[in-house]
Amino acid sequence: MGKTPASLKAHITRLEMTAPPKASMPVPVNIQTAIMRTPEIPLPFYRYLYRQVGARWQWVDRLRMSDEQLAETLNDKRNNISVLYVNGAPAGFYEYFCEDEDMIETQPFRPDRTCARSRHRQMVPAAGALCHLVAQS
Cα separation of 25 and 60, whole Å? Predict the structure, then answer.
């Protein structure tokens, strides 16, 4: 018999945004940063980012998908992925799914298919970055 897996305590956070933020975050000084939308992200690169960002929180859903399942999910026109680069190296990412004009579903917060949701009239990637971007330490 194998070991019994340890149970994990889950914490689910919900977010509702009814308007874009009134102020933006200050730009860091002395480092070069860029957030780039990645519409056709290569699967190995996506898995690398997913592991780097999600390992601490034990994200496994996307790692368990076959190449075909993951490609279908990531290439859905409603799915949006952006990557943070710091001094030329990938440092994090965020992902959201546009359900309709008024609703987006954030992807990284899906440990058990329970979703955090943001509601606002305009899709504001910068607002998503504030909530969902997790940089490597």
Answer: 30
